[in-house]
Protein 1
Amino acid sequence: MSHHKIEVKNLHFTYPDDHEAVKNMSFVIHHGESVGIIGANGAGKSTLLMLLMGVLFPDRGEVLVGDVHVTKKTLPLIRQRLGIVFQNPDDQLFMTTVYDDVAFGPRNYKLDEKEVAERVKQALDMVGIYHLKDRAPYKLSGGEKRAAAIASVLSMQPDVLIMDEPTAALDPKSRRRVIQLLNGFKHTKIITSHDLDMTYETCQRIIVIQNGEIAADGPREEILTNEELLDRCGLEMPLSLQNCPVCGHKKSVIRLAGTN
Ligand SMILES: Nc1ncnc2c1ncn2[C@@H]1O[C@H](COP(=O)(O)OP(=O)(O)OP(=O)(O)O)[C@@H](O)[C@H]1O
Ligand SMILES: [Mg+2]
């Protein structure tokens, strides 16, 4: 399944105000990998995701999805393979009802309305908000909006799922539902988050970004237990891996790693 491979080669991106947000990033993500992208506020995570999706284009370097270069010309093909849930749900939802937002992608593929309805129901059930299908997206709560934004991407059945801060603003049950959903998604997934416990539960590989550069790239057990690295990059070990604050009991990384 090499056509779902994502390759980033010597990527550079500078915003129009001369802020250099991505500096010489290179990595390859293979089909089926689950990759967490972590870093402090302003590290460059969202910018990187937008470069992967062709929302932004690099000054130098390139992004390849399979053998296809991400360019303005190849965008329709790229968007069929990669589905992104943006950090801000308001960037994703623009129709008058939740149903129409989730149906937008399938309708764009010219599926018949019966199949569209099936896809919408399946996607809304997956995030647990089928009952909100007739509501106006702009009237939903922050967490409900996020669930609707996730459903609008799931309905397109992408090969690669990219999520920018998927658990931000979610209550514990909704957060757990997103974690289960991510663990049930067997294709490639790329997730940025400050919720490092969620990242630990859903991603096998972690890329750490600091000031627009890759500071580390490796297995979660290595990266998320490296206190010195995390501290240097403005992060903290996931709570589930920290010692008990009361008795100092050391948590077992191996046992937690086995919970996935
Ligand atoms: N439209 C823009 N114009 C200029 N600079 C921008 C723009 N968007 C982002 N930046 C800057 O680029 C850098 C990277 O921003 P980005 O949004 O990618 O960070 P992030 O890692 O996603 O942060 P967060 O954790 O807060 O979401 C930041 O310094 C930010 O201020
Ligand atoms: Mg961001």
Protein 2
Amino acid sequence: MRKSILALASAAFIFAACNQSKQPETPATETTPPAATEEAAPAVAPPTEPAIVELSGGDDMKYDKTEITVKEGQTVKLTLKHTGKSPKEAMGHNFVLLASGTSLQDFATAAIKAKDNDYIPADMASSVIAHTKTIGGGETTEIEFTAPSKGTYDFLCSFPGHYGTMKGHFIVE
Ligand SMILES: [Cu+2]
């Protein structure tokens, strides 16, 4: 009888000891999920390398690219080069990236009247994700912006009459 009590007591002790020894492990187990989240984070984090985009337009009223692809949240360093000889007043070029849901035609039409604001209609500023200034032949301009959320966006040159041939898709993956 005594033996069995002792056995029971020691069993209880062992159980308690086991239980105790398990307790310190609990915080360690609890820290695992955040660690896993940290590991998963780089997969969704934007790339640290910027996207270098070189776009040019000449006197032929065309961009050399009609498609630009970047990653969501990526820093975009865009250089626009006017490879022509015509002055800004006759053949100005810019790059305007429109927010989704903005009509290319509506924007271009409004831009005709916005010469004083570099062909960016002030009342449509919220429809513009990023834009360069307007440049003439031989000039270069650079902008830096953060790529918006995944999707396909329109870009254009908003100089009067240019968007028909100077437009393209800005794809964010
Ligand atoms: Cu142009």
